[in-house]
């Protein structure tokens, strides 16, 4: 079960992180060896599964995630999709390298009811020496409906 970092001191140092492949890094968060980032707790989602080239986050929007109209804010969809797509790229990153999102795009297809459990799935399309490309989707766990899609481009940088 993932645990969440409570302060910056809980996170791995850059030198510790560079000793792990991206897949090892994500697996260590999933099994609780290493702490996950607090953004998941803030936004109501957690890492659910990890495999090479594929990540699933599971969560549900709460009232705290709504806009002034009382519907789920688009930033919630964007944050989840950015996390899933970029972390899918991370699973293909070798030891000694890091990555970050260069750009992403989302399409919200239908509104999510508050409290509805969803899976946010990120899948890689290509990861090379300098870039990674992935796509993602948000689907209802119970109804299987597609609620949003996204795509991303990440930069990959060799540091060690």
UniProtKB/TrEMBL annotation:
The family database entries (PANTHER family) matched by this protein are listed as:
ACYL-COENZYME A THIOESTERASE 13, THIOESTERASE SUPERFAMILY MEMBER-RELATED
Would the keyword Hydrolase be found if you checked this record's keyword annotation? yes
Q: Which UniProt keywords apply?
A: Hydrolase
InterPro entries, A to Z: ACOT13, HotDog_dom_sf, PAAI_dom, Thioestr_dom
- State which Enzyme Commission number(s) the record gives: 3.1.2.-
Q: Which family does it belong to?
A: Belongs to the thioesterase PaaI family.
What name has this protein been given in UniProt? PaaI family thioesterase
Domain Thioesterase positions: 69-144
Q: What is the native source organism of this protein?
A: Sulfitobacter faviae
The top EC class is hydrolase
- SUPFAM superfamilies linked to this entry: Thioesterase/thiol ester dehydrase-isomerase (SSF54637)
Instruction: Name the CDD domains on file.
Output: PaaI_thioesterase (cd03443)
